[in-house]
Amino acid sequence: GVDGRLPCLHVTRSGEGEGEEGTELLAAHMIPEWVDKTLGVELGGSAFDGYRDEAARDESHAWVSLLEGKVHAALILSQPQPTLLSTLLTLSHPTPSPNLTTLLSPPAPPLSGISSLFPPYGTRISPSSIDLQFKEAIASLSERLGTDRWFLGSESPTALDALSFAYLHTILHTPDPNSIRIEVTRRVNLVAWERRVRAQVAGTFVVSA
């Protein structure tokens, strides 16, 4: 994503000259403004930010934290690891991505502790713990969506739906099969939801003759 953050929105835009058109990738903070301008709705200015009530809006914050924390951590961990040769050539202790360490809750312990003769350094990452937290997060997300059209029972898509689609689409269409994609494909409602939203997004790029 733009600046390493999700969601992003790929949109068509008109050029300054007649017939000049192109595409643009919008950062997360630019999406509400684009919706207001393009669709003529006050998504960002509504009383509950598009959610059905205040309770749903407050609940959405917890789901956003879940996606940007446990799901994002599992997505980072699933990326291809550096080769042994590249690790040896760094001449330093291998450390995980800084983004991963900031996403873990509770924070991961250091590689060395009180019993060590060396001062604390690095971070001890537990892949099995991250994998378990990811599975629990996906199960909860699937259960919360249920058979609803949009998350939290909203009548129209919200920021939570945009973020959920960004993560689910990325996971389901990753080039290499891995455990995180398999875990999502087991949730039929999440797969169907991602497919439906993807079709709607793709439909906005269809140019009429």
From TrEMBL:
Residues 135-197 form the Metaxin glutathione S-transferase domain. This is Metaxin glutathione S-transferase domain-containing protein. Pfam families: GST_C_6. InterPro entries: Glutathione-S-Trfase_C_sf, Metaxin_GST. It comes from Piloderma croceum (strain F 1598). Transmembrane segments: none annotated. Signal peptide: none annotated.
